## 1
Amino acid sequence: MFSGTNLPKVGTYNVNVVLSAIQASEDISRVEIAQRTGLTAQTVSVIVRRLLEQGIIQESGPLPSAGGKPRTALRVNPSAAYAVGIHFDPLEVSIVVVDMLGRELSRSRNEIPAGREPEVLIAEAAKVAQELLHELDVPIERVLGVGAACPGPIDQDEGQVISLPRNDHWTDVPIKHLLQECTGLDVIVDNDANAAAIGERWSGHGRDCSDFAFLYLGTGIGGAMFLSNHIYRGVSLNAGELGHVVVEPNGAPCYCGGRGCLEAMCTTASIVRDVRAELALGRASSLTALYKANPELVDHTAVCLAAAAHDGVARRVIDRAADYIADCAVMIANVLDVELIVLGGKGVIHVADIYLQRVCEALQTRPLARRVHTVRAAISAMASSGAALGAATLVLHTAFAPDTASLTSFDV
Amino acid sequence: MFSGTNLPKVGTYNVNVVLSAIQASEDISRVEIAQRTGLTAQTVSVIVRRLLEQGIIQESGPLPSAGGKPRTALRVNPSAAYAVGIHFDPLEVSIVVVDMLGRELSRSRNEIPAGREPEVLIAEAAKVAQELLHELDVPIERVLGVGAACPGPIDQDEGQVISLPRNDHWTDVPIKHLLQECTGLDVIVDNDANAAAIGERWSGHGRDCSDFAFLYLGTGIGGAMFLSNHIYRGVSLNAGELGHVVVEPNGAPCYCGGRGCLEAMCTTASIVRDVRAELALGRASSLTALYKANPELVDHTAVCLAAAAHDGVARRVIDRAADYIADCAVMIANVLDVELIVLGGKGVIHVADIYLQRVCEALQTRPLARRVHTVRAAISAMASSGAALGAATLVLHTAFAPDTASLTSFDV
């Protein structure tokens, strides 16, 4: 059912429209803001004055003028607000602090000891976050909140992790509530792929994109879709499961019950498994000595480094993974016709060039509408800490990005 | 870039929110409209008065009351407005007239003679539309416009058909302009799958759905995605190409240049081809006599009727098509997490039950989030005239449905 809109909703929306125009530019004048947003000069002027008074934006000197009245440049005040991002990966916890521009100011990363209780882990993460803020000397009243990212599925309303892949004792963990108690800050929870996409939108390749997809290659494979300027979550908040797109109908079994899902063919674990299988057959490889010393030493990092250095065995397996990822990218182009597909997560480290080349080639030659519109691809610059950074920018995004949905949200 | 909003935009939006609430119900009171939309009683009252004065809605008597002030039921006036829908399929033209409720009042359907020039065909269709309106005695001032649906790709802004599959001389046809000239009415052009989806939303299974996908099995295979209450079109208006989802990586070559696309495996033509190939091998079938008389007589209708009557050969081919369609449905569920997937188009006639059963089974057992949320499937009740009906409701939808995008559209 559609909901109506009213004046207060419109007011907040327009403030965020102005702020978003300023955030998307390095320096912008009031006149340009009016031109870009379609708002009147008077509305822009009132909103800018309020944002200046609140210290959210600042004047950064005169803009070059082509005659006429000089124009004052406006930009976001980097120290107007801060946010904390925490990424709970099945294997490690990453914690970052960002400023208002989404720039990483500080970071901590810790492996998760096997079997650690969620409550203990969350309390430890909160403690680290507070230490980072203390070291940076950030005034606590300027910290907007904590964003927490986990591999899905997540109950976003309740801020609960429903389950954590590969960590059976993480079931129905009230992560939002626990983090709020430990930090005294507002907490937002989302899945890691959505968080990474929001990070990309706030300060990465998605900065000017209304429509892009994010393929998140972490311990598992997830996806996020930023459509019409919003994360598209689906009716049960389970959209974006790109890891379960079938790329090989008779391929390896997947934990979802299917066969040949991207998740079953291209995770770090399956890549390592495939390379070890080749090495066990005695194929010549620069990894042979390592494998003979201890097969466990042939991990994903070793495989990716070997592939980047043109080792035949490693390269074949990585190339095949790249082709499957390209198949998924072509499907995204055909179905969603987005502007951009971003690849991110720790799975792309060392092999980003290989993945990007194969995906770009496929996007240029295979989607039906390739001659009308070629979908671009890019590697997230936040590969190693993308989800933690994204979780932090999720806080900024929630506070400051214009939300069309809020115009029509139901508040009776 | 985000655009600002203002009061006139909000006013139009709220009128359409109220109308949409009335359209979605059989009978509804002012109080219920306020409850469902979040608008104030006063706003609802003002808008309802205006809609009554304009004859767009009508009072339909008192509602059963639980004591207190009696409530008057409101409903849409079916004869408030009419619309014409024209579907240009590669093989035939269908023309319908609908009332304000999207109900089909009249229909005409004509095969397209081979090589017919687009200009001639469009003029003929316009003439038929005018005859239908005349026979129905519809006042021309109540006809809101003409919706035209074609197999994509379409330049929606210009109202041009960029190209029509299997009709090489249909290139850059200015269909909107030509139809406007011939009919003197406003014209909207969209692809057949989007039109069918809008029809489904206005008066079919999608009536209460904010998020559903439409798999259109016509002469070709197309798709449409209704996400967050709008047709999602993608950045170059080429989203929804579900026909080019790969369901068999080493399958038959597709005209897009790929292999094993749904379009290459499951069109009416490929189904017929596969059945004829089996019959040529001498497989026992109820179609054998027909095939021996003339292989051309074994067309898609004959195959589907035979499959429905449990003929082994026809059933095997239809079952395999159903499985491919189910694979595509599972992908849609995993990626888009919609509420509903509708199958429509003439390709489902006679085999709807087979397709629906396989798709429902797959949706219940395969998507990752199936335990949290099972995506439903349904067969469009408008299988034979869906795109023409949809094209007509496209006119109603454009005129009357609340368009969040209009709140923030750029009108300088």
Note: The mean pLDDT of chain A is 88.
## 2
Amino acid sequence: MGKANISNPVIRRLPRYYRFLGELKSKGFTRISSGELSRRMGLTASQVRQDFNCFGEFGQQGYGYNVDILQSEIGAILGLNKMHKAVLIGVGNLGRAVAQHINFNLFGFQIIGYFEQKESLIGQMIKNTPIRNIRDLDEFCRENKPEVAVLCIPKEGAKVISEQLVRLGIKGFWNFSHYDISLNYPEVQVENVHINDSLMTLSYKLNNLDK
Amino acid sequence: MGKANISNPVIRRLPRYYRFLGELKSKGFTRISSGELSRRMGLTASQVRQDFNCFGEFGQQGYGYNVDILQSEIGAILGLNKMHKAVLIGVGNLGRAVAQHINFNLFGFQIIGYFEQKESLIGQMIKNTPIRNIRDLDEFCRENKPEVAVLCIPKEGAKVISEQLVRLGIKGFWNFSHYDISLNYPEVQVENVHINDSLMTLSYKLNNLDK
């Protein structure tokens, strides 16, 4: 499947396709037309067909898509079948929730270490993996070579830690801090999580209900 | 300011503008051109100007925008200056992290009650507000009339609870469960949080590094 020149909006839609197809699968669907899929996702049918054309042929005209195969292929394009070793930095409330709530393995990531500076948390276990002292980060990364860091620390500490992590070979960040990593390390892949944006959108919707 | 027919993509960008302008403000910027703002946000200058034109005149040609005023005006469009009473349902790891990590007040929401079914959590305090028994939800809502619910429970329980909440007058959901509320209540405003989508995007980026 050709992957050249996939535009950013198409890439952004891939996880949604993957998610919707998973839901269809769990509801017992085996085939779906681009029309039906687009209706459920709030897109147009031609949009869906265009998106899938970026990656080659997923279905037959007039026959619809095989839900299971389509989901697997999109999963493969997303790289979910390849495992990346990751460390999670900061296991306060947010870090702990992320660690326990997110099923990293389903998305191609394996958390091999948790790191924290707060003494009282060090040594505790999360999903059978110990929380380590942040001072041991260098040694751990040199030995275990994680490629990804999940950053769950406040903005203040993020500059120093991201510098250290990039130096230790981290190639991708899942960034919950409000520090802009990309600004200093354009070569590193960063996904920022801005949960507040959706809260603001909800506020907008509520305030424009009767207009 | 005219708000008619604002398209969904424009609405989606408003929180980003708000956030970026806040960061500029904290860095000491007082004025910014559409060119500079667009560069920082990865948009084109004409895109930025078009977006702002939807809401009327924010700046003067060639003179740039006043950062502080622009942020306030976008905040007002987002309705962040109006407070909505909200309840948060489910204070497991995720709910607790959301409750403690998100500064709801900044975004126009006031959490007036936390609800949980797990006996051991009931009576504990979060930010000076007690965690209540989910069985008291009806009575609480009738008395206090919240408009919004933050749903932090697993998919399984979400159908029954969302039905109950809509019946109790809830008009908007910030939905962390993987249950599709909109399907049954199209009249209710729902913002779904799909954190996994950004994790999949990171996987895609990492797997297409060298291509």
Note: Residues 35 and 211 of chain A are 31 Å apart (CA to CA).
